[in-house]
Queue: 3 jobs
Job 1
Amino acid sequence: MTHQDLAKDALARLLYEAEEQIVQEATSRLRTSSSPHYRGMETIDLKPRIQDLFQAYRESAISGDPRFIAAFVATIGRKRLRQEYSLEELLLVVNVLSRVVWETAASAFHSRGAEAFGDLLRLADASLGAKDSLARTYEEEIKQEREAFARLNKAFSEYLKVRYSESDLRHSKEDQGNLDQA
């Protein structure tokens, strides 16, 4: 975004100027949350994650196109779900960041009144795009896990059929031999 664009777009200017403050506040809130993965995590480890998420969020909010945040969240969401993060934890990150951005924007735009509505609507679109992407990613991951479980279950059932068929055949031959001896 050029300096001329920033001068015209109050939301873009705010999100670039307040980046450090927003990222720091979101990081702090997550570190004190009830999330097992984020609670107590070192700032040095968590802050870059929040900064990357914020930058994707900012691009979506400025452009009015939630695809930036949706693509980022889908990629990170898959990775975190495989690391056994819960959907609630992933939504917590999006919610915390969205809340900090919203609080920052509402405070900065308070005097603009209805004029700020469009800017705030773009923030809401970015948040909804992130949450929708997380939900779709989670659903996709669960579907893949269920399909993998079904394949394993089928293979195990086939194994048991073969195993017990051989066992039944062996027992039948033993029973027949016992009957012949009697």
Note: The chain has one domain: 3-144.
Job 2
Amino acid sequence: MDLYKSFVRDMTSFGSSYFLAGLIIFCLYIDRNLAVLLLVAFLISLGIVYLLKKLFFVPRPVPDKPKNFIERIDASSFPSAHSSRAAIFGLQLALWFQDLIFTVLIVIFSLLICWSRIELKRHRLIDVVVGGGIGLGSVGLAHLLIPYLL
């Protein structure tokens, strides 16, 4: 695999549930409130994204061949769960650090994750934009809900 393809695959992995789960666990040691905000935003996003995937099945640009119900939901391109998660950790970390340079870097990093999903032909632009919007909205909703959860 050439360096470019390797970079794209590596970038997309930062939008996975595993990465966000690891980030949440890591944040438990830094700031419990940050970890809870990330977790609540992730759960909100998860529910919205997978409900939309079920309601509006859109085949991926290079279609998968699902074998069961779970694979069928995952085979839907719309909206992008990776982009939603990238937006969640990008926005929440930018809000937590409140540093211009860090914010610029985390926005670039999050956009690279979103771009990787299109480059790998897993999503179209609209899937990524809507997924990112769900992630941003999930962070806002998490901030509204946190006072009632803590």
Note: The chain has a mean pLDDT of 91.
Job 3
Amino acid sequence: MLGADTVTALARALARGSPGITALFGRGNGTSQRLYLSLHATGRHVILEVEPQQEEAGHDLPGLGYTWGTRIARASSTSELYAQLLQALQVLTGFESCTLLGHDNDGRDPHLEQQGIPIESFPCTVDRSARVPLMLIDGQAKPAELVGSPGSLPDLSGCPLCLPPPKLRDWLSGRQARAALILDLYEATPGRSLVVCRDRQPRHLAPPLRHLLLQLTQVATLRRALLHEKQQTQHRYRLLHERNTRLQRLAYTDPLTQVANRHRIEQVLETELAAASRNGSPLAVLLFDVDRFKSINDAYGHEVGDRVLHRVAQEAQSHLRNSDYLGRWGGEEFIAVVPGCDLTQAQELAWRVCRALAQSPIEPVGQVTASFGVAACQSGDSCRRLVRRADLAMYRAKRAGRACVRTPEIGA
């Protein structure tokens, strides 16, 4: 008979999620015996199971449980999680072999194998409806022990392995196994979720050890789900970042020439002008226009005209520094913002681009030239005034015969 104190202790343990308790019972000869009390379900009946608890020398189960549980809970990757779990199982149970199950694709997983995680093919899966996270089967594939989650105890009338026993018996005998411990990391996430430990000798799991293995299984299941969710979140973040980058590029890029559009280059000019005014550093702009572009469109069509604009933009871009900015100002006009350049340096740069364009024929048009106006930032300048001076200088280049570079008139 169980005393009232023992019944109360067992009820409290079950309420906390523990499958049982250890209690000390007196014998008739004056000695005492340590027993493990637990509840199991079979069919519609709940059975109180009483087992003698063997003293396990050298096994500080609470300490080992804390150590291995912490390692598993802190695993930063699935491969590290599996490695810690397999090592914990081998240390705690003493089984000869602990491996991951590969019941799909012949058990092959090159990534995990490269990490040194042992994997082998297994001929069955676990019946998910049974939800038995831990089971010990004998060499005849019969269930020796089943441990269910607290509050969801399994029916012990059958083994929840979706496999005819002969096939599983062949798998066990082929490995000379007389006992196999199967852990099911039950979860909805994809991937491997079964672990097998096998031994060439019949085995029994002491109740406290069963409880500890069940807890480690639950920790591993939760950690694996969290790692999967983290991986999915990182993947979604990468996709979102890539899409935002593409959207930003579309918002800032002229689709025809693939340089900055008017809106973007105005933002750049405003930012660079503010920095130049604040730091007292030089800043210049190059405004250039493709010569006789209307005639090109009239003679060759707009498709060729579009090709000319694209080639002009790419040629000009190739002569600018990484710190310079090129944008399409409108129509056949382009503007380059060149930080750190005074008027003389900007004029030299404009001439290099001007000559390069004239020396790079574009089929079927042939030679294509551009007229350049160069203006440098002055004290108290605004973006509008700076671009206006460059525009006046560009029209001076047009009047000078095109295909040349001009600066604003003195006093402009």
Note: Residues 103-107, 148-157 have pLDDT under 50 and may be disordered.
